[in-house]
Amino acid sequence: MEDEVILLDFWPSMFGLRVRIALAEKGVKYEYREEDLVNNKKSDLLLQMNPINKTIPVLIHNGKPVCESSIIVQYIDEMWKGKSPLLPSDPYQRAQTRFWVDYIDKMVNGPGRKTWQTKGEEQEAAGKEFTEIMKVLEMQLGEKPYFGGEAFGLVDICLITYSCWFYSYERFGKFSLEADCPKLIEWAKRCVQKDSVAKALPDEKKVFEFCLEIRKMFGLD
Fold first, then answer.
1. Long-range CB contacts (within 8 A, 24+) of 185-189
2. The domain 5-79 is classified under which CATH number: 3.10.129.10, 1.25.40.10, 1.10.1660.10, 3.40.30.10?
3. What is the pTM of this model?
């Protein structure tokens, strides 16, 4: 009997995009269900499956929910072992991978969001903070093609989904990642050459239009 896999998601979510890429990497068929988060109309299924945080993404596998994007991606890697692993087999390298995923989860989204959800000095400061965080990640990448070395893996998945937001962050925050972090931008271009990434990421201009729409809703423009 084929597994029933359902993904509750929201199209521009960098967190939901992680799950979509991981599922594509593993060749898992699933049903996609879009949540109306713009109007805060969360489905009964979402509230039932994630009653604690009430957030997307939620992966429902044979009726059982798995929540939080980085946890979901690790679950996918453990559940569908047939394809290339997303985490290294070495315990130390696995620990390092989880460290950098945790760093991304704690550090990247906040200043990124502030670049387009604030104005003035706060917006400018957010752009500078975001750039400094990206410089740290660029140093960790070093000369490697991917964060884990030669293979596309968990850290790459957790960061590349922000790349479709880079254009918006740069436009609102008034900075250039290509100027400040050229190796990281080359890494992003390398990742986007993968079908799993290219087919998942929305167009950066569509994301920018989404940001403009939300800013108007909150009276920021």
1. 187/141, 187/145, 187/146, 187/156, 188/160, 188/163
2. 3.40.30.10
3. 0.97
